[in-house]
Structure formats: structure tokens, C-alpha cells
Design goal:
The structure is a homodimer. Chain A is an alpha/beta fold. In chain A, about 30% of the residues lie in helices and about 20% in strands. In chain A, the strands form three sheets. A ten-stranded mixed β-sheet of chain A has the order 2-1-3-12-11-4-5-10-8-9, with helices on both faces. A six-stranded antiparallel β-sheet of chain A has the order 15-14-16-13-17-18, with helices on both faces. A two-stranded antiparallel ribbon of chain A has the order 6-7.
Chain lengths: ~500, ~500
């Protein structure tokens, strides 16, 4: 009697072949005694019907009923407005943590295996925020903006997942990768929340590393890391780098974890050139399936399967895309048959995964929410309005702009304190070598003697209104203090 | 009689030692017949005097007079408000292109050299824009924003530099790395301007690659690239990754190129643990010096020096941080003496650099500008106001917010078309699984029948004023069309 239902989207190209083979393998390992797989329609066939999401309403509702989605590779059609199913799924279901493991596999030769370097670590990537909101505005003829957002509760969710997973895996140290030396406030928040989350896991050591140094370290000595948690874009870049260390996307599994719905998927392409030939490599999908089995508490079945996979790879069994060419190339089914025949065996050249006598936990999920939940970390902070940043679409030189702005601020509680261009101060002082584009920030702060908190935002809106009589105000930001701390950065040179 | 003056900042830690050795080597190669080095005060000693820029006013003015700065490694003091000299210098002098070459060196063992992979390519990184403006605002208790800006003229400058450099180097193909599949407008602009710039260099093939795939490719098969041009953050990450491929920052030179002032520097650390012992490795600084000599048209001297360096490394000469330990370790001066003794020799195991009979060009620089220049690409486009995005600091649920916003828009030309949270649509439709933070975007667009262009921005400001009576408006963006094309993105799910 199955306890868990899993929505199943085999994918496009080689997807159906490698998915069938993976399910065949899972069945042989006894997974089907506990799991019911529910087919859902996603991918090329759905896009072809003009559905820009690439998934039917029924597929969405079935996936929400199941709480787990197992999916093969799917492409995004170019042109026609089709959107990436992966991105849509993560956003739609708030699968906030992308979890990927990178492990050197026996029989998979890489630059690093040749150098005798054994890779074995994980990346947790924040999946919702950063520039991935896709909030972009053309602010002037020449300048486009993309908003990079980082929220405290968004950070908290992903860091908590990372530490909990590290605890389950028995890891000793988790690193936070970031660029807080440049993005001091946003990545500063990501790092600060990491340290705060880590306090609840005293047995796990924490460290942090700037993302560019991290990439250098990963290329030179990847074995120094156990788990790294990163913001969205940096995590995207670093996790694909790491896939390269173990032989490519065909050998790296991926899970997208949310509180309600989680997605386990092959992240490699659909390989249309070999689709239908039955020769695709199912390793990445099998490895993602192992993550899924562990997620639903089928730890014993996952361990047995992993040992069988390792023993098979170790024996030199391989599909056409990798392995020792002096040994015969197997097709997808033959490769999976070889793994099935190794069920119960353990690898000899690499450590076997411990197999528990039975599964001690059962998978449960929280009830469906009634509406969107507002997640919060900081509440009821004392904030005071202290000015505003106003952004102008203008090709004027800074000095002329300053004259106009000073005039606008005359009868207000504000004074012009800064004009910057692309983040560099150009007024009251600046270098003649700073090249400007047609988009300026002008900053107004309280005049001397005006007390913060003596009025709200209305004075800022009035000032903007006045400036908008003469200039195109393409953007505006309220400047506030939070518990007495300035909620805005200084310009370079300020 | 020197034709070129170069401002010289030896740096901190091992900086003075490796700089002295590098200058000694350059003198032996005849560089001092053409160059006068002008010492300038930058670094730890200047920070220690309370100067948060780490460079004296005299150093700034001398560097501006010279137009070239050659600098050793410098740290940024932690605490005390000191700012990175590297970042300040790039911004202050608009050194918009970071140019770095990565080449496998004989005698420098790496994971890749062990695998028989020869690395030889360049990265050009945009140096001014992206999130490096450091424009950050706390918009609510829980949410912080960093502006990512990409401008057309900023892109044009860096792409033109890349193609011109590729032409001089005789490269056949230049790639653009980007994340335009996610940041469709900003990185879309970066990619579009790349393609446009490439049209002026018909002999050079162009290609583009998404940055995560690029990192995977670089780790698996770096020899497939000749030159890659990238936006600032992505370029920062990728170029440090690439330094790892050739043995680390100690073997990777760096130049920051501007129209008026260019900076050639060692990007590695100051190695305080070995400072003063005379044992630091000058290779990175020497390589950066070679870039500088080529920049000032001393091509012959650079070629001679590079051949001598390669011949020396090939012989097994090494400082303590690298090389064949069965051969004696040299100190900094001994290492440079070995290179001097190889002047006129050529390497045998790797290709020698062609040495021209003489230098055919002279270095010239444009006159000092009178004030900041406004650089422009697109002018006089027809723009129409079509609405605004208003951002609210509010923990309300989307449905309650929608009621309030609809009421505010009643007597205006606008209607509420969207509420999104972290880029995902939550109204008029949305998933109950989307978790919201305390910061919403509400989008107002023209009511049916209202013609774009029939009014300016004032109606938007009035609407914002009305909303600000009841809600904290933390941010605002004007929505416009440019030549009939929407200058703003849709939300995920819209």
C-alpha cells in the first residue's frame, strides 16, 4: 500500500527513456511498495499546444496534491513566449532551496580524477531572490536596471535548510559564499542571517568565503569544502562549475526543496540528437531519484540503490558518453540491468553507503495553506524618514543638475547632499575622469537642525513632485533609518 | 630620454620587494630608456594616517598626470572605513575594462597541466557597472535592494576594447558570457551591444554562452576559448576561476584599462607572513608589467622579457611557493637574476613570443577632459508614459492590498494590473504556495481607451502621492515605452 504519491513528468528528448529505466530500477529496489507515481503533462507537447508555462492546469493541481515532482530533462522552446519550466516550478511552488551534491564517481574520468583529487561536497543555492525576480526597468535611453532583492526571511529559510541537511549528512563545516565586500547590505544580510542560523547548530562549524575566491579555491582544491550555501546567481554559477569537477551535468543530481512542494530533476539537456535510440545516460536522474527517496524517508532503498550504482560504475559499465572505451558500451536498459544485478552488492574501491536495517521515519507534509503566507523576520522596528534618492533621466552635466536641484530643495526640509552616476559621486566633488551616462541619482537628506522623525514621507513626495515639473523622474527611493541605522549605502567617493 | 611617465605604487607586504625585483628586470631589458617611474604614496601607510581612500591627493594628481599606474599588492584595512584602493582607482579614473590573461606556464604544475591541458585565453570584464555601483537601500524591515545597472555606452566601451585587443592579439573568436536568459533586459543589452560592436570586426567570429554553462565548460575544457567578455560580477567570478586553472593569482596578470588612465597590478595578496624576507614570487607583477609595456607600445621589450621569463620557468627555477622541489628554491632577487641571465634566450618547450625588430608605434593619450563627460549611445528616442510601479513596505496579504490599490486608482487614468512579491505575481492570480515578504510591487497601467502619450509623468506622481497617504512607498519606477517597446519586464506568472 503506497504511502507517498509522486507526480511524474518524464521530460522531453531522452527524458522518457531514462525515466523508464530509472523507474524500472526503483521498482527492482522495492520503491514501488511505498510510492505511487502519478503521470503529469509537462514539457514540449504542452508548449506546442500554446501553453506558455509548459504545464497543464491538471499537472499543476496533481503536483500540488502529491507534494513531490520527479522530472526528466525539459527544454524551453525558443521564441513563442515559452518560459523555463524549471524556473516557473521553483517560483510557483516556492521551492526556495536548490540542493546539489557533487561526488567523484568510480569509472567517470575527469580532469580531477586524473589528478587523484576526490570531490565530495554539496551546494545549497537560494532559489527565489537575488536578480531572479526578473524585475527590470529601462530608466533612460541608455540605462536599464535590474533589482537585486535579498530578504531576511528568504535567507533564513535557505540557511536553515542547509544546516538541517548538513546535520542529517553528519557534516562538520558549512561555508557561506557571498560578495558582501561589494554588495555590503544585500549580501551582508545573507551572511549575517547565515551566522544567526548557524547558532542553532552548534556542532557544525561555520565559515565564509567571497565568491570569486571560492571559485579559485574550488578549481585548485575542491576537497576543502563540505557544503557551501550561496545566493541565487552566485549559487547558479558555482553549482555548474562544480558539476564540471565531477564530469558534467550528467553526473550531478539536483533537488529544489520547498516547505510544501519539492522537485527532483535531471538538470542536463534533452539530448535531441540521440533521443529515441535508447542510449541516454540515466545516472543524473538516478542520483536525483536517490535524493528524492531520502527526502521521503526511504533511506534504506536509497542506500541499496546507491551502492549498486557505485558497484556498477566501478566495474566499468558505461553508456556511450563516458567511461573506459576498452569495455563494451551499454545502452540505457543494459546499464540499468547491470545496476539491478548489483542490488545487494557494495562498491570495493570507494566507501559503501551504510544501509540501515529499516526506515525509521515517515514522510509528512504540512497542510495546504489557505492563501499566500507572509514570512517575516524583523518586526516593529522604529523607522524614521531622513530623505530620498531621486533618479533622473537627463544628459545634463552634474554641475548644471546640482544648480537645478538646489533650487528645488530651497523651501523644503531637505538639502542636496550628493549626485552620483553609476554609483560614483560626481557632485559636490568628483573626478573629471568619471564618465557619466544619461541617468543620475540625486540624494536629498535632512537640513542641519531638522530632527529625524519630525515628519513622514509626504515631504519627500512633494519634493519629487516639484522636480518632476522639470525633469523626468524615472525612479525614487525613500531614505530611512531602522532603529537608528541608515538604511542606505554611501556612494563611491562620498 | 624617457617618453612615458608611469606612476609607481610598490604596495604593501611583499609589494616593495617584488616591485624592486620587477623594476630591476625591466631596467636590464632596456625599459628605463623609455620610461620614467614616478613614486606615489598609496596603501597601508596612507590608510594609517586616516585617509580612507588609501591614496594621497598628490598620488592622485601624479597618477592623473602620468596616465599609467603600476601597482603592487595592497590590502584594505578591516574596520576604520578604509575602502579598497583597487575599487576606488577603477571608479575614480573610469578604468572600465579589466583585462586578464591566463596561460599555462612551464614549470608551474596545476591540476590541468597534470592532465595535459594547455590553457591560453583572456577575460575582459566590465569594471564600472552591474551591482558594483554599491547602490543599496533597505526598503522594509526585511528586504534590502541592490541596483544592478547596465548602460549601453558602458557596454560599448568594454566590448570595443575587447574586440580591439582581440584584433591586436590575432584572435579568431570572442565569446560574450552573460545571464540574459534570466536578466533579459540588462544582460540582454550587454549581449546586444556585444553583437553590435562585433560588426566592426568582421574578421573575428563571435559567440555567446550563459555564464553557468561557461563555468562548467571552463572546468572541463578551458582550451575551447580564446577571449571572453563579461559583465562585472560574472567577470569577477569567472576571472578568479580562470586564475585557478593556471596555478592561482600568483601567475595571472591584470590590467584595468580606461580612456585616460590605466592601472597594471598584481591582484594577489600582500603575503604579510613572508613580507621583508625577500622570498616573494614576482611572476604575477612581472606579467602585469608585460601587459603595461605592450600598452605603452614597448612591444619588443615585452617580448624579450616574456621569452626570458618562460625560458627561466622552463629551466625549473622557482620561488618557494611553486615548482619542482627537487631543484633549489630561489629568493626573489635570485629568481629575477635568473630571468635577467636569460634575456635574449627563448623557451624550448613552449612557443616563443615573436620579437619585432623595433617598436613601430608610440604611446599617446587624449588630453585631460575639462569636466565629466556624458557618454551616450541612444538619443532622442520617442518615449511615452504608460504607468508606474509603486513599491510598498507592508505586511498585508495581497488581496487586501489589491482592494486598497484599486480604490486609489479610481479617479486616475490608471488601473491596477499586477501585484508581485519578489518578482512573482500574487494578484490578480497567484499560487497559495508563493511565500511573500513585507515588500510588494503594485503595477498601474493605462486604463482601456487611454492613449499612451496623452499625458506625462505628473499623473503617476499624483497617484503615488495618494497611495503615500496610507502606505509607506519605499520605491517607485516610471513605466515608459521607448519607440513603442515596453521598457519594463513582466512578472513571473504575469
Amino acid at each position: 500500500m503506497p504511502q507517498v504519491s509522486i507526480a511524474l513528468a518524464p521530460g522531453d528528448g531522452i527524458g522518457p527513456e531514462i525515466m523508464n529505466a530509472t523507474l524500472d530500477l526503483m521498482k527492482a529496489a522495492g520503491v514501488h511498495d511505498h510510492v505511487e507515481f502519478v503521470p503529469v503533462e509537462m514539457g514540449a507537447a504542452v508548449f506546442a499546444k500554446g501553453n506558455t508555462r509548459g504545464m497543464t492546469a491538471e499537472a499543476i493541481s496533481k503536483t500540488e496534491d502529491c507534494g513531490i515532482l520527479f522530472k526528466g530533462p525539459m527544454g524551453t522552446p525558443s521564441g513563442g513566449g515559452g518560459k523555463s519550466i524549471n524556473v516557473t516550478a521553483r517560483k510557483l511552488w516556492n521551492a526556495y532551496a536548490n540542493f546539489r551534491t557533487f561526488k567523484t564517481l568510480p569509472g567517470v574520468e575527469t580532469v580531477y580524477s586524473k589528478a587523484g583529487i576526490h570531490v565530495d561536497f554539496s551546494i545549497v543555492r537560494e532559489n527565489i531572490e537575488d536578480t531572479y525576480g526578473g524585475v527590470e526597468h529601462r530608466l533612460s535611453n541608455d540605462t536599464i536596471q535590474c533589482k537585486r532583492l535579498i530578504s531576511a526571511p528568504g535567507c533564513d529559510e535557505v540557511h536553515r535548510f542547509a544546516f538541517q541537511t548538513a546535520r542529517i549528512m553528519g557534516l562538520k563545516k558549512v561555508h557561506c559564499g557571498h560578495k558582501a565586500n561589494i554588495m555590503k547590505m544585500t549580501d551582508g544580510l545573507f551572511l549575517e542571517r547565515f551566522k544567526t542560523a548557524g547558532k542553532d547548530f552548534p556542532e557544525i562549524e561555520t565559515g565564509d568565503v567571497i565568491v570569486d575566491a571560492l571559485c579559485l579555491n574550488l578549481v585548485v582544491k575542491p576537497q576543502q569544502y563540505q557544503m557551501i550555501v550561496l545566493p541565487n546567481l552566485q549559487g547558479d554559477i558555482v553549482s555548474d562549475l562544480c558539476a564540471g569537477l565531477v564530469g558534467g551535468l550528467g553526473f550531478a543530481p539536483s533537488a529544489n526543496i520547498g516547505n510544501h512542494i519539492s522537485i527532483f530533476e535531471a538538470v542536463h539537456g534533452t539530448a535531441p540528437d540521440i533521443a529515441g535510440k535508447g542510449i541516454g545516460n540515466p545516472t543524473s536522474l538516478i542520483l536525483s531519484g536517490l535524493m528524492m527517496l531520502r527526502h521521503i524517508c526511504l533511506v534504506k532503498e536509497a542506500a541499496n540503490l546507491e551502492n549498486a550504482l557505485l558497484a556498477t560504475l566501478e566495474s566499468g559499465a558505461h553508456t556511450g558518453d563516458f567511461g573506459d572505451k576498452s569495455k563494451p558500451t551499454l545502452n540505457t536498459q543494459q546499464f540499468v540491468d547491470a545496476i539491478k544485478s548489483n542490488l545487494g552488492n557494495k562498491p570495493k574501491t570507494v566507501p559503501a553507503v551504510p544501509v540501515p536495517a529499516g526506515n525509521t521515519q515517515t514522510f509528512t507534509r504540512p497542510p495546504r495553506p489557505n492563501g499566500q503566507q507572509v514570512i517575516r523576520t524583523f518586526k516593529n522596528l522604529v523607522t524614521h524618514v531622513v530623505g530620498c534618492d531621486i533618479y533622473l533621466d537627463s544628459p545634463l552635466a552634474p554641475i548644471s543638475l546640482a544648480e537645478e536641484m538646489n533650487r528645488c530643495a530651497e523651501d523644503t526640509p531637505f538639502r542636496l547632499t550628493l549626485i552620483s552616476n553609476r554609483g560614483t559621486q560626481v557632485w559636490p566633488t568628483g573626478s573629471v575622469y568619471t564618465e557619466c551616462v544619461d541617468y543620475y541619482r540625486v540624494r536629498f537628506e535632512l537640513k542641519d537642525g531638522v530632527v529625524a522623525g519630525s515628519f513622514g514621507q509626504s515631504r519627500c513626495v512633494s519634493l519629487m513632485d516639484k522636480i518632476a515639473e522639470k525633469f523626468t523622474v524615472c525612479s525614487y527611493e525613500l531614505l530611512r533609518t531602522f532603529e537608528g541605522v541608515k538604511g542606505y549605502s554611501m556612494a563611491q567617493g562620498q
